[in-house]
């Protein structure tokens, strides 16, 4: 029956998603669209819920017409189904497929397909399942299929999923043939319909828009809804639609197929044009195909996982051929859009398309194929993009890919160009993945020898063997060598070999008539050089430079290719172009008597520079003297641009073998204090490092490339004593090389590792000996890096390293502490970062050293340490001393696995680690037990009965039990060790196999040998997470009552487990956070107690043993009803089941308490009802106050009745102040007198408690009598008291109360927030009252100073003081006289209250008194900060009075005054702030650092506050004029003084790590650029460190690119100014110039020249980014 199988009856989740997929295929049928798996097919019928037609696969049926043959597609649509043989829904899907697959009436295995459609594909789906199906679809037999599977190393698990699922579906073992045939028909597809911002829906809507009739007014969205509704109707009834009856189908009328046909014609044309581009590429050598399936799989994987995949490799390795193979094979189901890179060297994509007759945009074209799996854009020979403008069609293409998820870019590119392209076009590294195609390996070469025996002599020649590993070179060689054993010299050089190829391939020396070989050669060179110089895809040759017959022959031989019907040509392969260009360079060089002219003749085009480097590489092998001459020439001849020296040396260093260079220059490199060697090191660090874009490597690291690294390391290690003067450069070189060792170890030779090891050890010994160079603190980070590097070499220097570490361990001073560098070495060795190699090789040494340095051993005769006063003090005992752990400078805070070597020791040597951990925690526990520290928590002795009947004694308490979680105060070292143990045990327990022998052995050992519950708590945690792995080894723990109780406390503390940021190990916080969030930690609210019930229900293998344990607990409960309750709740036998829903099989368990326990539980529940209600009401109030919930007056009254009731006991959860504030703010007009009185009095009462508590601070016996969470709200509600005081409280009483609040000792953060509130809210509502209160506080400051409080006064003295204080406050509150500003001082007035008064004044005050007060206070504070900060108990009269904690508040307050007050007041404040500079008070800034930081901070934050103001877009012009008038005033003061203070602030260099101006076109500069330029003109070279950050960020649009000239002008003024380029901001500047301004720069040779000047200087400083950018920019420099 049709209705029998509707989705509503069969349940199928994801009905809405199913409709979307069905509607998208219906749309394809209407518009004659594409069909997956059928390139030429069209849908002729679509069916929904097809069980009524006999199909088990019922979600979607498609009938397809292809090449006059009818084919079928049966589909299941499941929203997010896992592809797993363990998933029931997947098994049902496969079973349905299998039944239809075997029904010959419904399925033809040769023609039909099965689609499983889901919402998204996992990486495993894409990389293995889909790829498996692709391979199956391309094979003819099962034998071929399984052969291909074995060769491509498909994960066996992927095949197992289908084998297991089909075996279950069949009911018998599936055969290999059946499995292959099934997979050949099976396709896995994904569409993201119903997802937020769905890509597939976007494509679909665009496709509708593209296809609908021009006169249709219905929107695409509306038409899509109509289609969905139609599908829903048919789906419900199990109906279908055929193409024949489409004309009567209502939605059909919206579409105009002529429009769609035109669009498909455009798609077809661009696709076919692209295929023609790849046509010349061959995937075989004279018909012989080299199969490289593994590489193809890597490319497919890259396409699946990355937006941009780049196929790289040596020239001729087969990049384009792979591309062609993939598109005709594994990716044949796509309709790729293919470009030659040169095509994208246009101004826009529209231009690219229009030139080939396409009138649709890229998004339209991809919408046409939206139902196909892959949407791929292909670019061949991407290195040619270096010839394009940065703002080219390619840049637009990148933007489209970025904005449209699912479009993939696949490029072939020479390796050298990848980094330059990334830099030139600003491509995000995270989007790129590179697949490097390797050269042919030895096995493949042997196959080639057998196939082409005539190549044997060539392949045996070591000088050319490497190049012949490139398939294209093999192809050329096969073409050139016609006869086996042709007369080939065994000693033939690469140049001679290449000459043979030129003669045979290009010139074809067999056809000698009319001088054709020569004509072919010159014609080809003319075309190749012309294309390179003009930087175009095709070049139209000059008639007088070519031979027409030669052109025809070259074209027929596929040496050149023609641009369609135009007389334009291009070399058919880059290798051929390289040959021609190298010959061109040889010809120029041979003709020149003055070799310096060579560099002017060459030009800057990328292809020519590439050829120049190849030419240098050839010379390096054949003529090192010429290379040496050229190097010397470029260094000595100043007329030759610097970059040519770099070009030559880069070519040398990046070559495959630069050994000859170091041999030839061995003496010169060491001459003149190693100047040339230093230059070479800098250049290697700059030009011979590249980003690696493979997924397994970090994309932010520059990795070494080229043979130079091995050669220079060997050279340095051989001459280490002669290169000491360039230690800095060598150190940096070695640290750069280390990335290769760490991440690309397979690429490192033993020779370079040994050399690096030798240099490292040499420097480490220098550090140990306190050599002066290393003594400086600026080298501390580098010293740490060298120590880590040495540890990394542990395998290679095990013996020497052991001796060195032991030597450091014994280097102890008279106080028992490690001395100097030794402390660093031992600290890093016992740490948890970058020492795994050391741990692996020397575990026993590290354990011995840990015991030596972690355990406290009191010195026998310690020297007495005396204070600066010469007084001897006994060593102070602290809480940490109770643990027996030595005091070291090693920092174990915050605790974690990276703080000790223990976790890595567990990984490499688990049993050594377990024994060490057990012994160490035993030592700590014993030390704690025996410690005489007075306030330690007592330990409980616990007897544990082991499974063998033996007994072990443990010591512990709740604190030790929680130690591994860090929720109690123990020792960070202990925490770190326990965390490491837990993490390791969780990892090995994760595999819950029945015989987890290692885990059980460790558990038994620890239970037998540990004396500490710290270990037991870790085992308990692991048991809760993975109980199955333990079996009965856990029983001794489960027999102990205390462990249940302590773990309950542990569970309740879990919310307080923190992951504190580790300032030294940035990634530690994330690791700790994830570790804290493990599910088992919070899943069971009462910890082990609650887990035991879960275990009995779901695991149960130990239930009998547990019941015996519970029975023993019952027997020993005695009168402890709470413990009996806990045991009852753990015992599954005490539960009864009650049915909730019999039809669904849902029931619940209820504990059946014994009567005494039941009565106790009932009583306890009643007592907690009010607490819970208070908590609920407080939450509602808090939500309303935070505007997350809109509270009604009725709701407010309900809560009022609860909180104001005398019958309900007050709890710590009550929020009466929040209730009162909301009542006054939201409902005042509705409040009754009772309500109003309650609200005002509640706030007053709490305010009184706060004042009392603040003044009694230090009295720990006083308890809070208010909700502490309401404290800040209360003190920030005083405006409500004044506003609604009438009839409740006298104003005089309020005045006194607030005065007392102002003088109370609130915490710093409370005062800070209150001051902001007072300035911004209270002062605006009550300006007169605020003034009166502030003046009272100023007067009180004098009273307080004159009546100093004696901390040891009697009660009577205290009482008298309080009375006197009250009289004074009462008197000043009712007098209107103002203090005399000139009399203010920190000697006569208490500074604390004066400063607080200042911060209460509105920053935009127009009161003359307060304006003068602000200026006077600034003067006092600045003078005060010149004094020393005295922390002694007897502070002198001249010691500093201003607390350092208030300095940040002062900084932000003064900046607001500068910006928001009257400009004349602001200028007066500037005068005050400048006095210390004008008086030259900063000769020694160390003593008055706070003063300097306050003043500079005020001006710095004035800029940031100005940025905030203009971003708020209110009165921008007003504030801009104010700011620049003030800044010009400040500048004139600096200029008049003839000094350069506040340069950083004047030039707005205020971007910091935690704050920055985000705009690149800052509104603050509008109309005031001349002011800024005036500042620069005055400061000259000193401005550089500051204008570079500004130009590269918020000043970019205003000052660039013309600012280049200004920067270079100042750089040339002084050699010291180049330091300003040695910054990250300078790197950002050159990147911004390239990415955003190169279009304008290239039009001006002066800008080009100066840009290159900056880049050259940064290259000299070692910046790889500068080198890559220069590679792009140099193209635009015109030769002189």
Summarize the structure in words.
It is a single chain. The chain is mainly alpha-helical. Among the domains are: 3-255, no CATH class; 258-438, Rossmann fold (3-Layer(aba) Sandwich); 493-653, no CATH class; 887-1101, no CATH class; 1169-1274, no CATH class; 1547-1676. The protein is 55% helix and 6% strand. The strands form six sheets. The protein has a six-stranded mixed beta sheet, with helices on both faces. A hairpin with a 2-residue loop joins strand 2 (60-66) and strand 3. Helix 53 (1193-1204) packs antiparallel against helix 54 (1216-1226), helix 60 (1327-1346) packs antiparallel against helix 61 (1355-1372) and helix 65 runs parallel beside helix 67. The longest helix has 31 residues, at 1155-1185. The radius of gyration is 41 Å and the shape is globular. The model is unreliable at 1-15, 866-874, 1258-1263 and 1431-1437 (pLDDT under 50).
In terms of topology, how is this protein built?
Layout: H1 7-10, H2 15-30, E1 42-48, E2 60-66, E3 69-77, H3 88-101, E4 113-118, H4 123-138, H5 142-152, H6 156-170, H7 176-185, E5 186-190, H8 199-211, H9 220-237, E6 240-242, H10 257-278, H11 293-305, E7 308-312, H12 319-328, E8 337-340, H13 349-355, H14 362-368, E9 375-380, H15 393-403, E10 407-412, H16 415-425, E11 432-436, H17 442-451, H18 456-460, H19 471-480, H20 494-506, H21 516-534, H22 548-556, E12 560-562, E13 569-571, H23 574-591, H24 598-602, H25 606-622, H26 624-636, H27 642-653, H28 659-664, H29 675-687, E14 689-691, E15 702-704, H30 708-718, H31 727-743, H32 750-768, H33 772-775, H34 780-792, H35 798-809, H36 821-829, H37 836-841, H38 843-854, H39 902-908, H40 910-930, E16 940-945, E17 951-956, H41 958-961, H42 972-989, H43 997-1009, H44 1013-1025, H45 1035-1038, H46 1041-1053, H47 1068-1076, H48 1079-1083, H49 1088-1098, H50 1103-1115, H51 1121-1130, E18 1135-1141, E19 1146-1151, H52 1155-1185, H53 1193-1204, H54 1216-1226, H55 1233-1255, H56 1271-1275, H57 1278-1283, H58 1291-1303, H59 1308-1325, H60 1327-1346, H61 1355-1372, ...
Parallel strand pairs: 3-4, 4-5, 7-10, 7-11, 8-9, 9-10
Antiparallel strand pairs: 1-2, 1-6, 2-3, 12-13, 14-15, 16-17, 18-19
Helix pairs in contact: 2-9, 3-6, 4-5, 4-7, 4-11, 5-7, 8-9, 8-14, 13-15, 19-20, 21-22, 21-23, 23-25, 25-26, 25-27, 26-27, 27-29, 29-31, 30-32, 31-34, 32-34, 34-36, 35-36, 38-40, 39-40, 39-42, 40-42, 42-44, 49-51, 52-54, 53-54, 54-55, 58-60, 59-60, 60-61, 60-62, 63-65, 64-65, 64-66, 65-67, ...
